[in-house]
Amino acid sequence: MDNSPASPFQPQPLSNADERTWAMLAHLSILLNLVTGVLGTVAALAIYLVYKDRSRYVAYQSLQSLLFQAIGWVGGGAIVGGAWTISALLAPIGIGCLFMPFALLLTLALLLMPVYGIIGAIQCNAGQDFRYWLVGDWVRSTLTGS
After folding, report:
1. Residue 94: left (phi > 0), alpha (psi -120 to 50), or beta?
2. Vertex 123 angle, CA 118 and 129, to 5°
């Protein structure tokens, strides 16, 4: 009988193919938001928590996806909702009609978010390093501590 102390669990690193797959799925999780509203962020968070110790690449890509979705769906959704509310409230006096094209433009921008996530998924599946505009550099500096 071996009485040596048990070694702590060491997670096994992911293969390159598995890294690409999980990074791709983290970006594609944005599509869940179209059906459920917020489960895409939950999926990206789950991928981050499960694989953060096994792959820096997957950690970086999934955390980027999580933050992009949270900022876009929560923050963007609030801004779009506010723009439509202001337009509706001011419509009876005519000024609201001037805000409607702006509200529509914001809505279309919000609906283009999944396209950006799909582009990220395609690049990750090809093994490229994808970076979301504004979010990517902040996430990289957070993960590397620099």
Report:
1. left
2. 125
At 22, list the tokens.
Answer: 């999980």
Question: 1-16: per-residue pLDDT in tens?
Answer: 555 555 567 778 888 8
Burial 116-135 (b: 16+ CB within 10 A, else e): bbeebbebbbeeeebbbeeb
In-domain check, residue 145: no
In a domain, 8, yes or no: no
For residue 106, the enclosing domain spans 16-137
Domains in the chain, number: 1
Q: Is residue 11 part of a domain?
A: no
Give the H or E element holding residue 113: helix 113-125
pLDDT single digits (tens) 111-122? 888 999 999 999
- Which residues, at least 6 apart from 64, have a Cβ–Cβ distance to it below 8 Å? 120, 130, 131, 132, 135, 136, 139
